[in-house]
Amino acid sequence: MSVEKITARILQEAQDEAAALKAKAEAERDAMLQKAKDEAAMQTLTMQQKAQTDALLLKERRKSVAELEARKLRLSAKQEMIETAFDEAAEQLVHMDQEEYKKFLLSLLAPYYKQVGEIVLNERDKKNLERKLMKGFSEEETEKLRGYIDRMY
């Protein structure tokens, strides 16, 4: 064999090996690119799903907050109505004449005269109405009430 043939053969083997290495490198590159594309696609899909989930959660939170605010507003309106009703009732009580006030108290006490308990009046009502309250009941009822009225504050 001549040197030229040996050189040509070595050169051919080197070219074949270079071509094989190049093909292997290109295959590895293509595999890496495909893997990166797949990972990117997976991350994109994951991020889209997370974004959808987050959007739904945010929507639910906003709905819950809105419902809570609506309940607060309803409660506030109810409390305002109750306050107004109490204020009006207090105003009516303050402006009742003495006889009407006595009748009112008697109407509140009458259903309970057979029950055991205490009648609690403020100092003014006790002072002004004790005798009048007793006149509103029968003798038997008055005896029962006397024990309660003795404990009035």
Would you kindly provide a written description of the structure presented here, covering whatever features stand out?
This protein starts with a helix and ends with a helix. The model has no long low-confidence stretch (mean pLDDT about 85). It has helices spanning about 5-95, 100-110, 125-135, 140-150. By secondary structure, the protein is mainly α. It is rod-shaped.
Give me a quick take on this structure:
It contains 4 helices and no strands. The chain has 153 residues and is mainly alpha-helical.
Ordered list of secondary-structure elements with their pairings:
Elements: H1 3-95, H2 98-109, H3 123-135, H4 139-149
